[in-house]
Amino acid sequence: MKLLLLLSALWVSPIFSQSDWWQTGQFYQIYPRSFKDSNGDGIGDLNGIREKLPHLKDIGMTAAWLSPIYKSPMKDFGYDISDFKAIQPEYGTMADFEALLKRAKELGIKLIMDLVPNHTSDLHEWFQKSVNRVKGYEDFYIWHDGYPDPKNSSNRLPPNNWVSNF
Ligand SMILES: *[C@@H]1O[C@H](CO)[C@@H](O)[C@H](O)[C@H]1NC(C)=O
Ligand SMILES: *[C@@H]1O[C@H](CO)[C@@H](O)[C@H](O)[C@H]1NC(C)=O
Question: Is residue 119 in contact with ligand 1, taking CB distance under 6 Å?
Fold first, then answer.
């Protein structure tokens, strides 16, 4: 009987008492590029997001998840990050980001950053150092020559058969 009670306590607790804000919150994903343009350049930006935060509050959101806003050459619309510590200029400045964060805090809305750690842009400092074999950076990326293409001797095939699924 004791075991049974313990088990039921374990089952019940995550639902009724242990829930963290992220387990019960309402999330709104913002794609900054198209969400709200505040300066008329045709591209959404951080100030536009800040302007619309009260609306998210009104519709009951507790958190906003931002698709990547980091510095990027935009070959993959921001998922190709060239500097994880800088804001892409067309979205605004670090000061704009800090203002957005401040407003979100005032409204009690959590801001979730979209971190993409599994690859970088080829323009990222680490990639440039790694491709140029700067000491200490050689293994920051996986380097492989690829396999000979049996159908085309001047071509190389990717080193694995991994597919990208969305
Ligand atoms: C890297 O992570 C992102 C975000 O989870 C994912 O969409 C993408 O497919 C991943 N890319 C690779 C090459 O693993
Ligand atoms: C063979 O591969 C090379 C390098 O990728 C490419 O430039 C060329 O067009 C290919 N030839 C054919 C016939 O597909």
Answer: yes
Ligand closest to 81 (CA) is 1
List pLDDT tens digits, range 87-145: 999 999 999 999 999 999 999 999 999 989 889 999 999 999 999 999 999 999 999 98
Per-residue pLDDT of 143-157, as tens digits, reads 998 999 999 999 999
Max alpha carbon distance in the chain (Å)?
Answer: 72
Ligand number nearest to the C-alpha of 151: 2
Domains assigned to the chain: 22-120 (3.30.750.90), 124-166 (no CATH)
Give, using CA atoms, the residue closest to atom 3 of ligand 1: 116
In whole angstroms, how far apart are CA 27 and each of 14, 67, 68, 96, 152? 20, 13, 16, 22, 49
Ligand 1 centre to CA of 116 (Å) is 7
**pTM for the whole structure:** 0.76
Residue 56 CB neighbour total at 10 angstroms: 20
Pocket test for ligand 1, best of 119, 120, 127 (most atoms within 8 A of CB): 119
pLDDT of residue 165: 79
